[in-house]
Amino acid sequence: MDGKMRWSVADAVDYKGFPADRSKTGGWVPAALILVIEISERLSTMGIAVNLVTYLGGTMHLPSAESANVVSDFMGTSYLLCLLGGFLADSFLGRYLTIAIFAMVQALGTGTLSVATRLPQLRPPPCNSSTTTTCQHADRFQMGILYLSLFVIALGTGGLKSSVSGFGTDQFDEKDEKEKTQMANFFHRFFFFISTGTLLAVTVLVYIQDEVSRSWAYGICCISMLVAIAVFLTGTRRYRYKRSAGSPIVHILQVVVAAVRKRGLEYPSDIALLYEDCPEASRIQHTDQFRFLDKAAIMADGDNYVVNGGTSTPNPWKLRSVTRIEEVKMMIRLLPVWTTTIMFWTVYAQIITFSVEQATTMERSIGSFQIPAGSLTVFFVGGILITLAVYDRMIMPLLKNWKGKQGFTNIQKIGIGLTLSMIGMVAAALAEVKRLSVAREVGPAAARRGTTLPVSVFTLIPQFFLVGAAEGFVYTGQLDFFITRSPKGMKTMSTGLFLTTLSLGFFVSSFLVSIVKSLTAGREGNGWLADNINYGRLDCFYGLLAVLSAVNLGAFLLCAARTKPQTPKAGVQMESKVKSSSIDEDDVC
Prior knowledge:
Blueprint: H1 2-6, E1 8-13, E2 19-21, H2 28-58, H3 64-116, H4 140-161, H5 164-169, H6 177-211, H7 214-233, E3 241-242, H8 248-261, E4 304-306, E5 312-314, H9 322-332, H10 335-340, H11 342-351, H12 354-360, E6 362-363, E7 365-366, E8 369-370, H13 378-403, H14 410-442, E9 453-456, H15 461-484, H16 491-520, H17 538-562, H18 570-573, H19 575-580
Parallel strand pairs: 6-9
Antiparallel strand pairs: 1-2, 1-3, 4-5, 7-8
Helix pairs in contact: 2-3, 2-4, 2-6, 2-7, 2-12, 3-4, 3-7, 3-16, 6-7, 11-14, 11-15, 11-16, 13-15, 14-15, 14-17, 15-16
């Protein structure tokens, strides 16, 4: 019996629902099959996002600002729908089914987009390049089909991103030292696959879109996802499946609802009288902050209900334990930093919209080869990879030898990233000043669509590289911050909270573009964000973003000064004992 227990994973089951056999399930092979889905998702999402603005402006004839907003809304919706995917995975479907279903949804979306970009009836007639008159914009039906395709892709992306990384880590047992090390390596390889998918998207896929056919490129995305699904399903018998502990969103709502229901009750004279049902080893000590939530733990008549067998159990919508309440408080403490990181993703949105649109007007030839405008984002990805390599191989060893530290703290990483993104917007404004001066010299000819200005596209490299380097710090810093500062039972929720900063950053970008366009539009409708950027003042818009980034950086520093690592709680102090005990992780509280 003891030998059988050693070969099984305590908190995981196989595809038949039996305890997972360590020798037959989990490990690198199943994890690799899951990563195939991730590389295909990145290929599709980023391949569409980084070059969509050129399609909207050049083929669908949308104004510059509207094109940028469509891309921002597409990316924002993709990340916002991660919350829906996470909720479905935690509460109903499980991660395996969530991945399988939403991968099919994304394949359907890319297939629809391939058809939408192929049929001439679904796009307006080409412009007459010999005139400077306004081209015919896409009509509502044409835009409706395009929006439908993008929404379906966003839905698929949201479902996949919420579960792929989690299901990958499910294949490793934290209680086994060897597998725990493998899990740490999995995160590095996961990020490598994200970067690989993005590199393929901004180079190979963008080239196919510009030089061969967009419908062919999007068709490749559809086929690659179908192949990835087939590969993913081959691992069904070898995967480990974790039992769901329920949705953290529901737990948070239960605490809030219970506190509101008991808002009229008096606090007990002793906090020991507050309700607590978690084992002592996993309890979180009571704190005085956000005391209004403590009322959810005040015991009163009617808190219990009777279930089958006559057992009386607390109604979770009326009574919650101190530990559950403290978990919610820990999530609330994340919000100041969460708020001040949204601005970075607003800056990020400009790199895949207006910066790409700038590139379309500039000289992009190297000999006889012309660089696709969307492929300029390769310098953005390069900024990420070079930053991570330099940090891992140079900065970390230097700090370890100098101050005995393992590297920058998560707060310091975020601060460095926010500073670099602010400098990136300054660089973008200066590059645009130079580009606009050339456009003014060209004169009326600059108004024609497809006009190439005699200024090198490599002028844009600093803004791409700086914002890419900033993401290398902000992304890893945010992920580390939200995971390490959140309660153990809400790691999935904290990851979702992190992803919402990306979503809101894109939506803030869309809102800001609309406001600036409305406020600065003159009699001719040009303003800062003109329909043709050669007649606008994109440099002023970048300058505004630099100023907002500086203000946001100041707010972040104030929040960071007041954000200190959590004092060790009872549950945290005993964590290693809990892991080595026979209690399942999901049954601790």
